[in-house]
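Internal ticket #5521
Category: modeling
Description: The requester needs a full-assembly model to guide mutagenesis choices. All entity lines are attached below as received. Residue total reported by intake: 486.
Assigned to: D.W.
Attached entities:
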Amino acid sequence: MSEQQTSQTPDNANKPVAKGQVIELYKGAKRIHPKMAKGRFANLRIAALLATQAVFYLVPWLVWNGRQAVWFDIIGRHFYIFGMVLEPADLLYLSGLLMVSAFGLFWWTTVAGRLWCGYACPQTVYTEVMLWIDHLVEGDRNKRMKLDKEPWNARKIRIKAVKYLIIFVVAAWTGITFAGWFVPIREFVPAIFNGTAGSGALGVAAFYGFMTWLFGHIMREQVCLHMCPYARFQSAMFDHDTLIISYDAERGEPRGARKKTAAKEDTNLGDCVNCTLCVQVCPTGIDIRNGLQYECIGCAACIDVCDEVMDKMGYPRGLIRYTTEAVLKHEYTDADIKKRLRRPKVLWYGLALLAAIIGLIVGISTRQTMQIDVVKDRGVMVRHNKQGLLENTYKFSFSNASEQEQRVTASVEGLEGLKLAGIPEEGVSVPPGQIITLPVKVATQPENVAKGSHPIVFTFHYRKAEDANDTVHAREIREKSIFIGD
Ligand code: SF4
Ligand code: SF4
């Protein structure tokens, strides 16, 4: 086992136990200090990190129509996403979004393995950020390992204090940003500094900041190895045509050190110079040369570093590379990998993903921006009003799930002579994001209705308040109810 590898197996696991001997049932994992890798895939990882974190840190600060552009107002039970206002009734779209994410995950895992883990998972991203801080303050791998072994002295305390201060600032700002998706961030941040921030939002920020530090700095690869469920079930989506990061053992073995100037045919060695750099850069501390392992998060750092070694030795790149099991078994060549994208599993997942995306887009673009509820008021008895008409009472609830004031008009049908009272003919104005509840009466001549329950239908038309006279673009909602005759 390499110096870096983690292990939970105690050294004395298989030895006979002497009387009075303390048995070590758990051996803590050694701290991994990966070396920084440079290259094509490291650049891709940085680009993915910058893109995902730009969204995370900047989006809560965007303003749309005078309000936070994206605000998941859990207490107010409204989700504001730019011009869209989602309510609890719109949870269906959240299910749609989850389906898109799930099929997306299935699709790209089948095609290219652990892309999510290697490039976009928040755990990978924050581990990478914390490693940058380690590298910036303590230096590269060797210096960090040396510093860890050093006894505590003024220099070590100073270095560690600077590092933890930077980590604290990053973790705290991450926590505050996370809370800022759920509370108005432009009010929350000043409120933290003047001591008026709500305890709920502060608690969320503190918890998320703490978890960023714990998972990103303390636990790091342990989260991927022991806590992440995705690491466990993703192999079910792999097939022998899935792109995985692999060491080409046929080409690399027998491994061994040699002079850079030595002619390869004179060495009787494969292309692996046994420099162990691929192990040194690995954030989970494994040796990719031992074959596909669930600990591999697909970060491709070992590809970058091995390519660099191959360049220096004058050997072709790709001793460690994205390839498929089938290529390694000589079923086809690397050049044919693209053709295998047209296999049924990939196509079915792709079709399911496409259907989920189309369904979500259609659902959102045709969604009603006015939710209307009609409830028969059973607390008020059927009665004859002052005009001698037979009258039933209802409660209308209008919930405006848009950014504009909207006007709603209503009519009723189902029995002869039905009249609606309590809602003006020109309609009711409902402010953006607000709910209005109105008591409404429906009446007709007693001779028009027999005793018992009769179905009736309310028809509502709604449009932007500024387009109140635009009957062409008004949207319609019909709600069934009953009218009781006595
Ligand atoms: S980096 Fe490449 S050459 Fe060096 S040990 Fe790893 S596989 Fe061998
Ligand atoms: S084996 Fe390579 S790709 Fe896998 S986690 Fe280690 S460095 Fe990353």
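Resolution: model delivered.
Comment from assignee: Residues 91-115+221-367 form one domain.
Ticket closed.
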